[in-house]
């Protein structure tokens, strides 16, 4: 078993007095796709925010490539190659597509930016066509591509995607999952938070089910796919 | 109607006054646009900068324009440090606290100045202060013409910094989408401090431009900042172009209402216009509609 790229244990976090995560543990191996599933309000985005450092852990440890990062600032965590593409895209609406992508590589040298940009444009030809357009005027699907493209500009070793398929047409959702596989084929590990349970379990190697701030189940994607009670209880299928 | 011979110089003079207003407003609007707070210490910091320019001349014999070259970076560092080490940490991320901290800072600075220099009003005498430039029927004081030119350059420089440099782009990113900026690896605490530093540096330049024709006492900055507040609102909160054009506009309004209502009532025109704009275009002349 190789050392995990991301290793979380005993993680507690919340907002003010309200504790949302109540002792969460999770690992992602290098190059692995791990899905985190759970109902609305389970705490999935809270987990992502705590990993990327925009929220402070109350207790517990987060290790990335064996270094403790739970006290680090988000900018330092990004520099390590742990990139979080947040829920709701959070692109810069007042800037062009190109400027958005450039800012994705903010922690990388100028020289690497144009390389990364060409790669991003190769993955998303649509973004290349619209590179001068203000990001706020892109369609929802294009904005999601831009958010992922901006994440890729940062040269992730681990990419966290928080509900990337939200608001996409079925056709685009298909494309998204194909993209996730191809990103992963380049050796990038992914932590995938999704409502699209079936497709997520198809691309992921392992999955965790989050309920009420705790993981109630973890296992290989195949096992979880075939667990009937689980489907009914936690995934509403 | 007044003849062009009177109107033309009044408009030009208004533009000159307005330029310095614009510079003060530029700092305020930049800080508002990025940190989303109204910096109540702006007036006190302007006063402090005016004292600095005054003593640079009095004690070191520095011409205000030379002093500007030194004071601008100094006040950038001061503003950076204030935000990074005082305002930011004291606020614990709550906007309401930031407001109170800047207000407290203003009180501290003003009282320190009052304690050190009493309420006395001071001026400096420069050999060229009463030289004039003649443009048609208008005679314009040299320091005011210099101020106008400098402000245009500063505004242009600021605009270019925001458009073209990495830090400038990061500032714009943080202004509109803080979480997205953080997750792109932008150090938000640093960007906040840089922005506050830029806003404070604007004040140092404004102080050096003002000191040749204006007096300084521990309240001197407040009059300008009150007008700057109206400009920030008129120009559209957070808009650099709005602050510049709004400032020039307000200068002309003041000058023309001075002409019609009498010198001492000139500023009434500003506030009447302010209320009218708020009534008919609440997001400001250049603001994005909410
Ligand atoms: N800023 C906040 N302040 C207070 N409570 C919050 C905040 N953000 C989230 N919460 C609460 O924390 C809980 C978990 O929220 P979170 O966003 O992590 O859920 P989620 O699993 O991502 O849900 P969804 O699938 O709807 O995105 C919710 O009950 C939510 O109301
Ligand atoms: Mg969520």
List the main descriptive attributes of the protein structure presented here.
heterodimer, A: 237 residues, alpha/beta, four-stranded antiparallel β-sheet, 10 helices, 38% helix, globular, B: 290 residues, mainly alpha, two-stranded antiparallel ribbon, binds adenosine-5'-triphosphate, binds magnesium ion
What is the compact description of this entry?
By secondary structure, chain A is of the alpha/beta class.
Number of strand elements of chain A:
10
* Cofactors, ions, other ligands: adenosine-5'-triphosphate, magnesium ion
Strand content of chain B: under 5%
Mean pLDDT of chain B: 89
Q: Helical element count of chain B? A: 11
Portion in helices of chain A: 25-40%
Q: How would you classify the helix and strand content of chain A by structural class? A: alpha/beta
User: What proportion strand of chain A?
Assistant: 25-35%
The helix tally of chain A amounts to: 10
Straight-line N-to-C gap of chain B? 39 Å
- Unreliable spans of chain A: none
Largest sheet of chain A: 6 strands, mixed
Principal-axes geometry of chain B comes out as globular
Quaternary state of the chains: heterodimer
Radius of gyration of chain A over all CA atoms, rounded: 17 Å
Report what the structure shows:
The complex is a heterodimer of chains A (237) and B (290). Chain A has 237 residues and is α/β, with parallel strands linked by helices. Chain A is built from 10 helices and 10 strands. Chain A has a 6-stranded mixed β-sheet, with helices on both faces. A 4-stranded antiparallel β-sheet of chain A has the order 2-1-4-5, covered by helices on one side. The longest helix of chain A is centred in the C-terminal third of the chain and has 16 residues, at 170-185. The two termini of chain A are 33 Å apart. Chain B has a two-stranded antiparallel sheet with strand order 1-2. In chain B, helix 9 packs parallel to helix 11 (266-280). Chain B has a domain at 26-222. Classes of the chains: A alpha/beta (237), B mainly alpha (290). The A-B interface holds A 52, 54, 73-75, 78-79, 83-86, 89-95, 99, 102-104, 106-107, 150, 154 and B 166, 169-170, 172-173, 176-177, 179-189. The complex binds adenosine-5'-triphosphate (ATP) and magnesium ion (MG). Adenosine-5'-triphosphate is lined by residues 15, 18, 20, 38, 40-46, 87 of chain A.
């Amino acid at each position: 078993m190789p050392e995990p790229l991301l290793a979380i244990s005993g993680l507690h976090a919340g907002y003010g007095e309200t504790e949302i995560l109540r002792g969460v543990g999770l690992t992602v191996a290098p190059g692995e796709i791990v899905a985190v599933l759970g109902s609305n309000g389970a705490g999935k985005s809270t987990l992502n925010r705590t990993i990327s450092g925009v929220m402070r852990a109350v207790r517990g440890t987060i290790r990335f490539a064996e270094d403790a990062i739970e006290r680090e600032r988000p900018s330092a965590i990004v520099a390590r190659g742990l990139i979080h593409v947040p829920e709701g895209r959070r692109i810069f609406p007042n800037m062009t597509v190109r400027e958005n992508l450039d800012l994705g590589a903010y922690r990388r040298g100028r020289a690497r930016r144009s390389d990364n940009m060409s790669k991003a444009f190769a993955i998303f030809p649509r973004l290349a066509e619209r590179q001068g357009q203000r990001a706020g005027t892109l369609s929802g699907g294009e904005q999601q591509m831009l958010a992922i493209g901006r994440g890729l500009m940062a040269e992730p070793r681990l990419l966290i995607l928080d509900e990337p398929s939200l608001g996409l047409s079925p056709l685009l959702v298909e494309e998204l999952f194909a993209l996730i596989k191809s990103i992963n084929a380049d050796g990038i590990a992914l932590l995938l938070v999704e409502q699209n349970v079936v497709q997520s379990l198809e691309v992921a190697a392992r999955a965790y089910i989050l309920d009420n701030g705790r993981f109630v189940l973890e296992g290989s994607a195949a096992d979880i796919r075939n667990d009937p009670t689980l489907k009914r209880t936690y995934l509403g299928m | 109607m007044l003849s062009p011979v009177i109107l033309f110089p009044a408009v030009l003079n208004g533009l000159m006054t307005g330029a310095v207003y614009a510079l003060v407003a530029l700092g305020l609007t930049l800080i508002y646009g990025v940190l989303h707070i109204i910096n109540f210490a702006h007036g006190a910091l302007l006063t402090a900068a005016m004292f600095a320019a005054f003593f640079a001349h009095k004690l070191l014999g520095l011409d205000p324009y030379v002093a500007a070259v030194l004071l601008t970076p100094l006040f950038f560092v001061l503003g950076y440090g204030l935000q990074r080490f005082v305002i930011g940490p004291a606020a614990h991320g709550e906007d309401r606290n930031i407001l109170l901290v800047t207000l407290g800072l203003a009180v501290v600075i003003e009282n320190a100045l009052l304690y050190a220099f009493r309420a006395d009003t001071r001026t400096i005498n420069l050999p060229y202060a009463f030289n004039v430039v003649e443009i048609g029927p208008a005679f314009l004081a040299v320091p005011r013409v210099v101020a106008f030119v400098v402000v245009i350059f500063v505004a242009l420089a600021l605009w270019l910094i925001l458009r073209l440099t990495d830090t400038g782009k990061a500032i714009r990113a943080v202004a509109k989408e803080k979480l997205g900026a953080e997750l792109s690896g932008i150090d938000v605490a640093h960007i906040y401090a840089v922005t506050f530093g830029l806003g404070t540096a604007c004040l140092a330049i404004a102080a050096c431009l003002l000191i040749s024709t204006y007096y300084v006492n521990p309240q001197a900055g407040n009059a300008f900042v009150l007008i700057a507040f109206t400009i920030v609102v008129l120009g559209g909160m957070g808009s650099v172009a709005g602050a510049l054009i709004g400032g020039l506009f307000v200068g002309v309004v003041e000058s023309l209402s001075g002409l019609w209502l009498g010198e001492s009532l000139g500023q009434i025109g500003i506030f009447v216009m302010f209320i009218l704009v708020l009534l008919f275009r609440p997001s400001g002349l250049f603001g994005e509609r909410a």
